[in-house]
Amino acid sequence: MDQPADAPWNTFIEGDNLEVLGRLGEQVDLVYIDPPYNTGNDFAYRDDFRHGDARSTRHQAWVAMMRPRLELARRLLRDHGAIFVSIDDNEIAYLRLLMDEVFGEANFLAQVVVNLNAKGRQLGKGFATSHEYLLVYARDARCTVLDASSTEAVDERDFPLTAADGRRYRHLPLRNTNKKFNPVTARTLHFTVWGDPVTGRVSTAPFDGGQEIGPVFGDGRPAVWRWSRPLIDRRPDDLVCRTVRGRNGDRVDVFQKDWLHAGRRKKLRTIWLAEEIGSTDTAVAELKAVVGHVFESPKPTGLIRRILATMPDDVVVLDFFAGSGTTGHAVALQNAEDGGTRRCLSINSAEPTRVGSNARNAGLLTVADITRARLRAVAETVGGGLVEDPPH
Fold this sequence. Notes:
By secondary structure, the protein is of the alpha/beta class. It is 25% helix and 23% strand.
């Protein structure tokens, strides 16, 4: 990764993404794309699929459009990299199979449900759809640097206790609650300790006032500890002995003091709510604030920033369906906030905007003009610079 500190945060390349990807010389660490969703209308990327007749379904045509682009994206991804793809119900099943083929089933990381419309779409028949999906694959799951956790996922309300020095913490059972781990499968973690529920002291050796405590499940069956003897000996102050109420009455047990600290991360869930990452409405407002209401369904920068938070702060990001330029905008915002040196390569075609649309009325004749206008505004207001290829 190792980006020069003065490297421009954003680069915009105008052209057909298949052609641009084929000649792109730079390797990247992260790919995010929001491809056309194939809702039944013709989509812009009409390659020569060469299937021979008109019987090819629109799903087959969509897959045929996506396959070479994903193959090129995989070729450009570094071994430690990852790809995120936004998609809706129309193509999720086909895309999942295609991604399995191109990236390998073993490199599948998640299928995230993204709630971008909290109220649900009220037009049309059937259910009020309020979600899309985000498919996540590693280039190589064995060495990916993707960390599926976030500092934002940590809620201080989960740490209700306060130590004398003001630090917040919670109690976690020292007993391993996963029944896959038991005296048969983890023999070295099944031993007794001594604890005093009055003083809270815990030790691996007997002491005055201490009671011998073995790890047991709630039903009384033998369990194992999560910590080894040496770890307990090294961190006795992070343990506490307490009396708790169990199924068969009061019993004495051992708990870990789990501390809340700066930079603590928590695993991301596979449902991302609009209140956490923004919605289509907030995305429209973001775009309107910089270039006007010129794109129908942009993604919120909060969605991309959550994705960025799973990777190091010096990654090279590629978005080859750049749309309104949300990814480049998010990269600039994140760099400005945390001092990162991420760079984003955005690719978009010169597909004409619709006659009579807000974009066309604003003088933006192609979708590439929309991307360019946003990234120029971002460079002016947020900073980081912009390189345009070709210069415009």
